[in-house]
C-alpha cells in the first residue's frame, strides 16, 4: 500500500467485527433453517433451539477469540506454524481448507439452485456460479478493510429488508401454528439444537478477525453482538415461516421463506409481490458468506507458503466450481451436506482443543526449561 | 451388519454425485482464466497499488516545493542555484544579456533615463503586460523628481538601488534580486525591471495589468438561496474572496509554482487547527510531484494527484462556490486552487458530497433533509431505471403485478426490438441531445431539447420503434440525472447506467445485483487521500450519520465529521455554547 494508507489504517473496530461475523453466518440458513428444524423436531418450537444454538455458538466463537487474542496482530494462519510446527499445521490447515472449499461450493451451488428456480430458468448454472465467484475475487483483493466496509453496507440493508418482509408476512400469520409451546416436552428441542447450531457455520471467520483488531479483547463483545443479530434474524424468520405456513407445510417445501413471501400479495400498491426484494437481499448475503469463505481460503494458503494471495485467490475458484457442480440435484446437495458436518466439528472443536493443548505443552516445557 | 449398512449408505450417497463431464472441466478452466485474465489486464492498465507505488517511488524527488513566504525570505534570502545567470555591474551588459534572450519580442519595451549627471538607468518591461499608468505615476514620476533634486551624485550604485527600493518608490510589490534569470521570468509575467548602471542588483516592480472579469454567480452551481458569488480566473481575486469570508488566523494559504514551461501559481488552502496534519502533508507532497509543461485548468491537477485513475468516480470535488470551499475547510478538508481556473478542488471526497448542495444547510432542516433524500432517490433511479425495466420485461414478468405486466406487454406490441436495443437507442439518443444542447448557445440549445425530446420521442412511439413506457423510463432517468448537483458525479452515473443495462440484459435481476456488488466493491476499495470513499456510511459513526442521508438541525451537528479526524472536533453551535456556559457558571457557583 502507498504512504496514504497510514492516514486511515484498516484496523477493525468491535462493531465491524460483529458485522463481518453476522455476514459470514447469514447465508443459506435464512432460507433452509425453518425446514431443517421442522423436519428434525416436528414441533413448532424451533425458536428455542435457535436461541440455545446461538448461546453454544457464542461459547465456541469466544473460545476462538481466546486462542486468537494470545497472538495479537496475527491470524490463526500466521501463528499456527509456530504453534504446531510447520508440517502438523499444514495437515490441520489442509483439512480446514477442504472444509472451506466444501462450504464455499455449497453456498454457490445453493445460490445457483435458487436463482435457477426463481429468477433465471434458462441460464446455465455455471454462468451464475462463475460470475458470482469473479465478483467475490474482486473484493477479496481489497483486503479486510474493504471487506469490512462492504459488510457494513450490506448488513443493515439485509436486516431492514428482511424484517420488512417478515412484517408484511403478518398477513398470512396464524399464531395457532406456533402452539402448543413445548407441547411435547423438552426432547424435540434437544433434537433441534444440532441442526440449528450447524446453521451458524461461518463463525470460523473468528480465526482471522481478532488478529486484525487493535484490541483483540474487545472481540468477545463483538461475538455477542454478531451472534445476537443472527439469532434475531433466524428466530424471526422461523416464527414468520411456521406462523405463515404451519409445521406440516414447511416440511414439504425446499425454500420455505421464499414460499412464504410468495404466498401473499398486496394488491393496489406499486409492488404486489415482494419476493424480488427477498431474492436481492438473499443473493447479497450469499455473496458475503461466500466471499468471506473465499477470503478464509486465501488467507489459509499462507500456511503453505503462498505469501502473495493473488494467484491463490484465482486457483481455488475452479476447485470450488467443480465441487459445486458435482451433486446431481438440490436433494443431493442437501443430503450430502451432512458429511460436511464432521469437518465443521473438526474446525470448530478439534482445532481449538489442539491449540489449547499445544499452548499448555509449550508453557509447561518453557517452565521446565 | 452395522458396517454393511454404513457401506450401503455411503454408496447411495456417492450415487448422488455425478462424474464431472467435459463441460464442467471446461467451465472450471474458464472460472480460473476469466478472472485471472481480467486481473492481469487491469494490472497492466494500472491498478491502485501500482499507482500508489508511483507515489512512493517519486517520494525522494519532489518536482516543486512550496513557495517560500516573504517572512522567511526577509530572514534568509533565497539561495542561488547553479544554472542561474547573475546580473552584471554594467548596465549595457545587462541590457545586452536581456535583449539576447528576449530581444526579438516586439512587446519588449526599454525606457532609458538618468539620475543626475552620471547615473544611467533603464526601465524594462513587456508592453501591455505591465500597467503603464502605474509605472508612470509611482515609478517614473518620483524618480525623475529625485534626479532633479541632485541627491544622487557620487553614491555607491548598490547602496543607491537599496535606497531606491526602501525610500523612493512608493509601491508595495518590490523585489530586490541579483539574478538575471529571475528578472527575465518576472518581466515575462508583467513586472517591470529597474536596472541602474554600476549596480549588480535589479528592482522588480510588480505592476501587472489585471485582467479580471466581474464576479458573478457560477452558472453550473446555481442556488435558490445562497451567496451569488463565484470564483473567477485569477488566483489573487479568489484568495481575496476566501480571505474576505474567513477571518480566522488559522486559515492558511500555501503557494506552489508548477509547470515546467508555463509557471502557474497553485495554492493550497486549509484551516490549520482543523485539518489533519497528515492529510495536509500528503496533499502537499502530491502537488509537489506534479511535473508537466503547463497546467491549463485545475482538472489537470485533479487527474495528476487523484488516487485511482481507473475509477469512474471523481476523487476531488470541483466547485466554483466559495461558500462550498469554506464549508469544506471547516469540516477539515483542504482546497486547491490554480491561477487561471475558477474551479477549486476539495479533497478528500466522500461519495455523499456528490449529492449535497450548500443549500442543504441554508434552508431549514426539514426541507433540506427531504431534498437530500430526493437526490439520493433520483441518483438511484437514474442509475437503475432502464436496467430494471429491461430486467423485468425480458426475464421476470412474473415478479411484477399481473395487471401491470399485461399493460406493459400490450405497449410493447409491434416493437420489433428486444428491450435492450430499445433502451440503448433511446438512451444514446438522449445522451447525444444532451451533449449537443450543452455546446450550443442557450436559445438554440432549448430548441434542440424541444425537437429531440418531444418530436423524436413521439415520432418514435408512433412509428412503433419504441414502446411508450420506454420513453417514460428514459425521460425519467434523464430528468433524475439532472437532479444530481455535481456534474462529474452525473457523468459517472450516466456511464455506469449503460453498463448496468448490459448486465440486466444478460442476467436479469441477478445481473443487476452482481453489478451492485461490483460497484460497491469498487467503492469500498476506493480511497480518496487515504479516506475510504464510502466513509460516512461505513465504518458506522453515529455522529457522521447526522449529516449523511438527513441533515439534522444545525444545533445537533455539534461535532465535525469524525471520519476526517479533525484536530478541533467541536463545532461552535448554539447549543454547544449554551451548554458550555451553563457548565462554566455551574462550576463557578460550586467553587
TrEMBL record, chain A:
Recorded topology in the membrane: Multi-pass membrane protein
Segments crossing the lipid bilayer: 12-34, 46-65, 86-106, 126-147, 154-173, 222-245, 277-298, 310-336, 342-361
Keywords, alphabetical: Germination, Membrane, Transmembrane, Transmembrane helix, Transport
Domain of life: Bacteria
Pfam family name, one: Spore_permease
InterPro entries reported in the protein's UniProt record: Spore_GerAB
Keyword Signal tagged: no
Protein name per UniProt: Spore germination protein
Amino acid at each position: 500500500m502507498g504512504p496514504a494508507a497510514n492516514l486511515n489504517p484498516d484496523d477493525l473496530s468491535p462493531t465491524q467485527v460483529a458485522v463481518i461475523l453476522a455476514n459470514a453466518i447469514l447465508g443459506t440458513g435464512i432460507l433452509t433453517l425453518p425446514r431443517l428444524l421442522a423436519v428434525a423436531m416436528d414441533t413448532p418450537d424451533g425458536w428455542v433451539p435457535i436461541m440455545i444454538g446461538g448461546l453454544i455458538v457464542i461459547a465456541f466463537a469466544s473460545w476462538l477469540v481466546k486462542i486468537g487474542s494470545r497472538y495479537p496482530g496475527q491470524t490463526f494462519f500466521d501463528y499456527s506454524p509456530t504453534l504446531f510446527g510447520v508440517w502438523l499445521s499444514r495437515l490441520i490447515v489442509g483439512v480446514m481448507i477442504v472444509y472451506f472449499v466444501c462450504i464455499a461450493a455449497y453456498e454457490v451451488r445453493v445460490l445457483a439452485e435458487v436463482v435457477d428456480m426463481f429468477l433465471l430458468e434458462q441460464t446455465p448454472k455455471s454462468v451464475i456460479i462463475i460470475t458470482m465467484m469473479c465478483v467475490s475475487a474482486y473484493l477479496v483483493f481489497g483486503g479486510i478493510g474493504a471487506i469490512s466496509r462492504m459488510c457494513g453496507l450490506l448488513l443493515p440493508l439485509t436486516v431492514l429488508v428482511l424484517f420488512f418482509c417478515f412484517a408484511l408476512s403478518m398477513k398470512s400469520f396464524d399464531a395457532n401454528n406456533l402452539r402448543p409451546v413445548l407441547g411435547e416436552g423438552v426432547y424435540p428441542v434437544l433434537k433441534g439444537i444440532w441442526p440449528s447450531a450447524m446453521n451458524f457455520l461461518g463463525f470460523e471467520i473468528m480465526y482471522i478477525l481478532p488478529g486484525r483488531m487493535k484490541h483483540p479483547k474487545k472481540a468477545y463483545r463483538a461475538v455477542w453482538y454478531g451472534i445476537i443479530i443472527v439469532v434475531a434474524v433466524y428466530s424471526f424468520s422461523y416464527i414468520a415461516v411456521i406462523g405463515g405456513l404451519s409445521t406440516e407445510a414447511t416440511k414439504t417445501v425446499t425454500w420455505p421463506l421464499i414460499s412464504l413471501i410468495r404466498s401473499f400479495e398486496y394488491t393496489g400498491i406499486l409492488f404486489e409481490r415482494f419476493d424480488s426484494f427477498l431474492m436481492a437481499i438473499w443473493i447479497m448475503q450469499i455473496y458475503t458468506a461466500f466471499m468471506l469463505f473465499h477470503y478464509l481460503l486465501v488467507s489459509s494458503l499462507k500456511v503453505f507458503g503462498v505469501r502473495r494471495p493473488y494467484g491463490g485467490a484465482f486457483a481455488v475458484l475452479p476447485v470450488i466450481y467443480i465441487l459445486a457442480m458435482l451433486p446431481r440435484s438440490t436433494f443431493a446437495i442437501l443430503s450430502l451436506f451432512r458429511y460436511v458436518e464432521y469437518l465443521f466439528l473438526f474446525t470448530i472443536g478439534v482445532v481449538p482443543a489442539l491449540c489449547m493443548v499445544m499452548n499448555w505443552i509449550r508453557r509447561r516445557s518453557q517452565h521446565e526449561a | 451388519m452395522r458396517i454393511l449398512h454404513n457401506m450401503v449408505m455411503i454408496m447411495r450417497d456417492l450415487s448422488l454425485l455425478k462424474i464431472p463431464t467435459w463441460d464442467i472441466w471446461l467451465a472450471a478452466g474458464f472460472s480460473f482464466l476469466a478472472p485471472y485474465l481480467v486481473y492481469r489486464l487491469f494490472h497492466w492498465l494500472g491498478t491502485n497499488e501500482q499507482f500508489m507505488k508511483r507515489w512512493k517511488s517519486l517520494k525522494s524527488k519532489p518536482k516543486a516545493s512550496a513557495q517560500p513566504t516573504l517572512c522567511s525570505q526577509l530572514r534568509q534570502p533565497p539561495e542561488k542555484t547553479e544554472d542561474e545567470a547573475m546580473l552584471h555591474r554594467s548596465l549595457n551588459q545587462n541590457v545586452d544579456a536581456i535583449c539576447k534572450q528576449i530581444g526579438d519580442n516586439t512587446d519588449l519595451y526599454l525606457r532609458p533615463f538618468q539620475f543626475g549627471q552620471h547615473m544611467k538607468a533603464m526601465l524594462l518591461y513587456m508592453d501591455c503586460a505591465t500597467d503603464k499608468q502605474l509605472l508612470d505615476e509611482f515609478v517614473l514620476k518620483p524618480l525623475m523628481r529625485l534626479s532633479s533634486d541632485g541627491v544622487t551624485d557620487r553614491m555607491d550604485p548598490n547602496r543607491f538601488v537599496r535606497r531606491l527600493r526602501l525610500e523612493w518608490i512608493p509601491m508595495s510589490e518590490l523585489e530586490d534580486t541579483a539574478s538575471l534569470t529571475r528578472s527575465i521570468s518576472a518581466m515575462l509575467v508583467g513586472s517591470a525591471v529597474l536596472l541602474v548602471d554600476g549596480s549588480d542588483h535589479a528592482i522588480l516592480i510588480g505592476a501587472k495589468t489585471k485582467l479580471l472579469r466581474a464576479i458573478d454567480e457560477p452558472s453550473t452551481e446555481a442556488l435558490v438561496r445562497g451567496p451569488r458569488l463565484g470564483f473567477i480566473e485569477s488566483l489573487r481575486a479568489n484568495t481575496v474572496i476566501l480571505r474576505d469570508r474567513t477571518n480566522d488566523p488559522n486559515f492558511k494559504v500555501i503557494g506552489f509554482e508548477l509547470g515546467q514551461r508555463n509557471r502557474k501559481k497553485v495554492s493550497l488552502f486549509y484551516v490549520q487547527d482543523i485539518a489533519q496534519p497528515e492529510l495536509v502533508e500528503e496533499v502537499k507532497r502530491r502537488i509537489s510531484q506534479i511535473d508537466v509543461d503547463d497546467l491549463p485548468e485545475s482538472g489537470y491537477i485533479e487527474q495528476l494527484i487523484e488516487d485511482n485513475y481507473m475509477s469512474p468516480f471523481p476523487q476531488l470535488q470541483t466547485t466554483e462556490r466559495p461558500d462550498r470551499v469554506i464549508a469544506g475547510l471547516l469540516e477539515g478538508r483542504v482546497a486547491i486552487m490554480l491561477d487561471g481556473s475558477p474551479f477549486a478542488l476539495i479533497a478528500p471526497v466522500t461519495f455523499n458530497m456528490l449529492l449535497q448542495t450548500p443549500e442543504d444547510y441554508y434552508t431549514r432542516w426539514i426541507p433540506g433533509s427531504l431534498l437530500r433524500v430526493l437526490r439520493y432517490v433520483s441518483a438511484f433511479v437514474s442509475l437503475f431505471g432502464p436496467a430494471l425495466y429491461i430486467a423485468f420485461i425480458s426475464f421476470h414478468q412474473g415478479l411484477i403485478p399481473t395487471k401491470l405486466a399485461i399493460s406493459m406487454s400490450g405497449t410493447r406490441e409491434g416493437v420489433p426490438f428486444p428491450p435492450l436495443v430499445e433502451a440503448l437507442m433511446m438512451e444514446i439518443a438522449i445522451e447525444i441531445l444532451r451533449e449537443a444542447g450543452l455546446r450550443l448557445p442557450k436559445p438554440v440549445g432549448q430548441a434542440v431539447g424541444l425537437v429531440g425530446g418531444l418530436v423524436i420521442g413521439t415520432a418514435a412511439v408512433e412509428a412503433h420503434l419504441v414502446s411508450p413506457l420506454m420513453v417514460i423510463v428514459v425521460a425519467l432517468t434523464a430528468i433524475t440525472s439532472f437532479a444530481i448537483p455535481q456534474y462529474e458525479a452525473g457523468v459517472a452515473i450516466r456511464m455506469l447506467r449503460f453498463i448496468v443495462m448490459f448486465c440486466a440484459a444478460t442476467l436479469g435481476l441477478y445481473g443487476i445485483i452482481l453489478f451492485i456488488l461490483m460497484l460497491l466493491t469498487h467503492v469500498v476499495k476506493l480511497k480518496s487521500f487515504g479516506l475510504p470513499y464510502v466513509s460516512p456510511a461505513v465504518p458506522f459513526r453515529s455522529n457522521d450519520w447526522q449529516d449523511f442521508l438527513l441533515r439534522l438541525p444545525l444545533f445537533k451537528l455539534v461535532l465535525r465529521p469524525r471520519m476526517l479526524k479533525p484536530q478541533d472536533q467541536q463545532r461552535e453551535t448554539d447549543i454547544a455554547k449554551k451548554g458550555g456556559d451553563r457548565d462554566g457558571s455551574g462550576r463557578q457557583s460550586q467553587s
